[in-house]
Amino acid sequence: MQHTHKYLQIHPGDNVLVALQDLPKGTLIELNNHTFPLTDPVAGKHKFTLQPLNPGDSIYMYGVLVGKADAAIPQGGAITTRNIHHAAEDFSLGERRLQWEPPDVSKWKQKTFMGYHRADGSVGTANYWVVIPLVFCENRNVEVLKEALVDKLGYSKVKAFQADVANLVQLYQSGSAEADILNAPLEEVFTEQQSQRVFPHVDGIKFLNHDMGCGGTRLDANALCGLLAGYITHPNVAGATVLSLGCQHAQASILKQEIMKRDPAFSKPLVVLEQQKEGTEQQLLKKAIKQTFAGLMKANSITRKPAPLSRLCIGLECGGSDGFSGISANPAVGYVSDMLVALGGSVILSEFPELCGVEQELSDRCVDEATALRFMDLMRNYNARAEADGSGFYANPSPGNIRDGLITDAIKSAGAAKKGGTSPVADVLDYPERVTKPGLNLLCTPGNDVESTTAEVGSGANIVLFTTGLGTPTGNPIAPVVKLSTNTKTFSKMPDIIDINCGTVIEGKATIPQLAEEIMEYVIEVASGNIQPKAVQLGQDDFIPWRRGVSL
Question: Rounded to whole angstroms, how far apart are CA atoms 422 and 314?
Fold first, then answer.
């Protein structure tokens, strides 16, 4: 990686460079034996050519094919959506490439985190009770339970801006005009919840509303039950209350089968109530409240105890990515991934549309041919379904991605894959399967960051490292989500939602290994309950199951 404070060549085989800051037209570029001026202004995070390109010529970044030229591009010319298009190498079953040099983790081997030990041997980084509807028909009843339980048990979050709204009401009632309303100063007045938790060892009650369970394909209903079973059996969950209507596709019997598939000796408190059997909503809710309260009493008896770092399962996620994602936050998280794998832990790399172009490398890293074939089949089938709907993987980059330098899916994917580090691929999972092996696990999910984060946690991630270039508030109801910015500008602009700044790598103030050690220390503190990431503080409980099929 050739690095100046102005531009960067990521891989020696690349024929485009990354601008690390805004570069005006005429800026003199010097790299290896090349000296040339920029023929276009190039914004920071965007790319420009190292040599002249003709139409049809290949464009390489991260050492892989990421696009083809649509027009002649001079040396020092900016690449844009107008002069290149997405392209990626095809992939096939290759040789196993399992040689791996793990990072030195000797200083971490004896370190522990304080977690919640479960009967199945897993260890949680938190201790939640979950309330789950099996079908969207029960969402309102879940909301009633939320209103009844949260305040009285001491789990209310900060109440913001209520005083501001009261002030606007007063202005309106006193006859103020619209201009007065719009010009009224609003102070950030926050009211902290003062009541003590009734159950101090229970971190919260989480309510996982969704819009599925019936009216779609049976496969989606079954997958939903598998996902919900993943949350119920999750090491961060002490017990669950499940509300079923009764007649929907997502039957309680399917949920229980999925629970037993993940934990044959399941012993957590589990309340399952069916409205069509119970009668009135009042009868249903009274029973739900009493049995949930009894379950919380059991959950409160569990306390944190030391656990080795090998009991961590980290989800690797990105959202609002930019042109710096693949050179700062993602490789730093990838180094952390390698550290954890070397310590015997598990990591999950998902978002299969964002692995387009690196399929060959990842399939070659799979521990055996059967695992490699499963990965290749999942990638091909997923892309084929997307193509049939008019949007293949090529359509993955969002307008924000493109605006900030990720102009083809292969450019975005090559950087996104860096989160997975360099270790062999231990297993390949289809949604919503559970992680059962230590090491790097590939999980088939969409590129949508909330759907993917939801899936990673359902597969067992007890903490999530989430990189972002543009900034996003994404969180999860039961697993702490640590947000890492790819650049200092976003970190400084959005400190209320971002936890760690990886922009120091871009500025030359930190190396990838140094930043990875900082991230690992932070992860241990979060896993032990000593630090609450911003998403937890804000109650950012994003939960969206993946709907693969159509509505019927």
Answer: 15
